[in-house]
Amino acid sequence: MQPVKHATDYLTFETPHRRDYVNITPQVEDFVGRSGIEHGLVLVNPMHITAAVYVNDAESGLIQDFDDWLEKLAPHEPTGQYRHNNGEDNADAHLKRQLMAHQVVLPITDGKLDLGPWEQVFYAEFDGRRPKRVVLKAIGE
Amino acid sequence: MQPVKHATDYLTFETPHRRDYVNITPQVEDFVGRSGIEHGLVLVNPMHITAAVYVNDAESGLIQDFDDWLEKLAPHEPTGQYRHNNGEDNADAHLKRQLMAHQVVLPITDGKLDLGPWEQVFYAEFDGRRPKRVVLKAIGE
Amino acid sequence: MQPVKHATDYLTFETPHRRDYVNITPQVEDFVGRSGIEHGLVLVNPMHITAAVYVNDAESGLIQDFDDWLEKLAPHEPTGQYRHNNGEDNADAHLKRQLMAHQVVLPITDGKLDLGPWEQVFYAEFDGRRPKRVVLKAIGE
Q1: Which end of chain B is more exposed for a tag (fewer CB within 10 A), N or C?
Q2: Residue B67 φ/ψ, nearest 5 degrees
Q3: Residue C76: CB partners within 8 Å, gap ≥ 6?
Q4: Mutation test of the interface with chain B: which of A88, A98, A126, A130, choosing the one with the most B Cβ atoms within 10 A?
Q5: Chain B contact probe: residue of C1, C25, C41, C42 with most B CBs at under 10 A
Q6: Chain A residues within 8 A of C49 when measuring between CB atoms
């Protein structure tokens, strides 16, 4: 009979621009290693609603493509087009994070993050220049 | 050694309009409290494919922005633009729920839903006026 | 006290077209049955970043609607519009998979996949004609 194991950690980001894309795969891998969990699931979830965690390619052209595409489908300007922007200017950030599906759950196999060859975990900031947290929560055996 | 704990519950919604947005954070928090799980994960998943569960701000202007934006990217009218609308008129609802990423997994820490300051869990109905179910499933210790 | 159980499997797909939609519900149900897990969660995650796993209707008109809609919001042509397409032509596939939210977590109840009446699990390929893997990971008791 196997004991349940769990682990929790928090990452904090304060990015220099309104929008930034940070590869956090090393931090997630490190967390999984420290958890001692051999088989299980790890949730990587932004605790702020103007940011996303997603899995995709660590390729600079693609990251720029994502940024252009998000601006096209949920533009920042004109800020007055959004009802939320009444003293705020970040309504687009709330929308962009939904387009990126905002959170991921990843498998842990044999004590490691079980990723495909090009899967990388990113923190996508859409309203930066202030501290934001991501919660890591793993459960397994 | 810790026992595995699990809990399951179902919520039913019958909203008055075709599209509605219901803050279900209290129901999810209550479920987590009743589960007796101290550390784990909770899945909140609509069991119908014309609805979504998402996490974002409980701000009425933003909810209206979401609704306008979903109508722009996946419009209801003209209903004849969709092949699915052959005796049905809800193809747009199937698309909208994908845009909102349709389900969430949330962390349980110290017996409580581990949410950031503005994270609120919403049930988004895109084809309402009939009963729909959401499944809550938690696992942990 | 319940033991933790876990199970892992991999599915491989090599679809005939650039874009294809494959109903994988039977494979996921079979995996859950073989896992021996009575209550828990199962993650279904593509290990390639130009594919998605999603839950929606197994209705051929709707699948064509999804395909048309994804082409409208993240078009393949002209391939030169994307910075990523520098020796590649699949930037749109990376975007389309985000629109479809790319992975799902499903509940296991009483030893079975706990799905609503119309929920079906699909593998969506956006850059096919080569082998791609999906990981299945279940945890529970």
Answers
A1: N
A2: -65, -45
A3: C18, C89, C92
A4: A98
A5: C41
A6: 55-57, 116, 118-119
Q: Distance between CA B12 and CA C56 in Å, rounded?
A: 19
Chain C residues in contact with B95 by the CB 8 A cut-off are 65-66, 69
Instruction: Determine the Cα–Cα distance for residues B111 and B121; give it in Å rounded to an integer.
Output: 17
Two structure tokens written together for A12: 């904090």
Closest CA to A132 of B39, B119, B59: B119
pLDDT digits (tens, 9 = 90+) for B76-123: 999 999 999 999 999 999 999 999 999 999 999 999 999 999 999 999
Query: Helix (H, G, I), strand (E, B), or coil: what is residue B13?
Result: strand
Cα separation, B60 vs B65, in Å, equals 9
Q: Which of B3, B48, B83 sits opposite C1 (nearest CB)?
A: B3
Number of H helices, E strands in chain B: 3, 8
Concatenated DSSP letters for C1-23? -PPPEEEEEEEEE--SSSSEEEE
> What are the Cα distances from residue C6, in Å, to A36, A63, A110, A116?
15, 35, 12, 20
What residue of C is the nearest CA neighbor of A55?
C49
> Is B67 part of the contact surface with chain A (CB cutoff 8 Å)?
no
Residue C74: name the closest of B83, A69, B82 by CA: A69
Interface of B with C in 19-58 (CB under 8 A): 41, 43, 45-49
Sheet holding C40-46, edge to edge: C5-13, C132-140, C40-46, C104-109, C112-113
Q: What is the pTM of this model?
A: 0.98
The pLDDT, as a whole number, for residue C1 is 56
The answer to whether the peptide bond before residue C16 is cis (omega within 30 degrees of 0) is no
Nearest CA distance, A67 vs chain C (angstrom)? 11
Flag whether the ipTM exceeds 0.85: yes
